[in-house]
Amino acid sequence: MSKVYLVGAGPGDPDLITLKAVKAIQKADAILYDRLVNKEIFQHASPQAKLLYCGKDPNRYTLPQHETNQMMLTLAKKGYTVVRLKGGDPFVFGRGGEEAELLAEQHIPFEIVPGITSGIAAPMYAGIPVTHRNYSSSVAFVTAVTKDGTDDEERWQHLAKGPETLCIYMGVKKLPQIRDRLIENGKQGDTPVALVHMGTTQSQETVTGTLSNIVEKAMHIQNPAMIIVGDVVNLRERISWFNEQSNMQGDHLIKVTSL
After folding, report:
1. What average pLDDT does the structure give for the chain?
2. How many CA atoms lie less than 13 Å away from 36 in the CB half-sphere?
3. Which of 130, 224, 227 is nearest to 175 (CA)?
4. Does the annotation mark 77 as catalytic?
5. Are 52 and 33 in contact (CB under 8 A)?
6. Catalytic residue status for 34
């Protein structure tokens, strides 16, 4: 009987995939994978498995969601064991919830395999804990890309005055707006901020600053990158442990930009 596995591939380092995810990949007849999935993970797949790209680039919307949905349904109804492989965790800004709803409506058996989300892993690899007894007892995972019709004003008021740590996904292009909205709604300009590009991989680069100067300091940073806002960023200088490599034409230099 066919089955669909909604699987989190983790944040980038292929060693951070779970054993349960590996077992699902090993039995898959077809793997529908996203842009940020590390291709090294495919070593766990059967040589006969179909590998089907369903990525969505910030600059090129490669495959509309409804087409991905239809592909997943078609393969399952043909009797395939399908793995829908997503970067990070399928239920953290991965549209896994929408796909699970669809499978339930179509009475197709499915299983959800959680993954490590980049909102925790990227800061961790940069030496930034998202919570700390002395700095932060609350954290919010936020997307900079919101659905049309969202009450944006109320949202930013809550984010600026509520959680002590913000982990913001998909926000690099909107960094100036993020900075402005947080300051407008009460965050101090000297609040520490970090951007972690390609977190957990050998291309990882971290830039730190404050709300007042981070836009200028991080102008060269591109997607994918996590934005972390809060006093926990100050801990990076004490507990940074992962050597970050510059990805410049074969040069391998430790690259750390601090406050």
Report:
1. 91
2. 28
3. 227
4. no
5. yes
6. yes
Q: Global pTM?
A: 0.89
Strand 192-197 vs strand 225-229: parallel, antiparallel, or unpaired?
antiparallel
Q: What is the side-by-side strand order in the sheet with 256-257?
A: 139-143, 165-169, 225-229, 192-197, 205-210, 256-257
Active-site entry in 71, 170, 173, 231 = 170
Buried-exposed string 40-51: b where 16+ CB fall within 10 A, e elsewhere: ebbebbeeebee
Active-site annotation holder among 23, 56, 173, 217: 56
The answer on pLDDT for 170 being more than 70 is: yes
Q: Which residue has the higher pLDDT, 58 or 30?
A: 30
pLDDT tier for residue 149 given thresholds of 50, 70 and 90: low
Which residue is it, tokens 């991965």? Answer: 94
- Residue among 13, 29, 34, 89 flagged as catalytic: 34
Neighbours of 192 (CB within 10 A): 21
Query: Quick check: is 170 catalytic?
Result: yes
Per-residue model confidence (pLDDT) at position 110: 98
Sign of CA dihedral 232, 235, 241, 244: positive
Candidates 248, 186, 10; CA nearest to 115 is 10
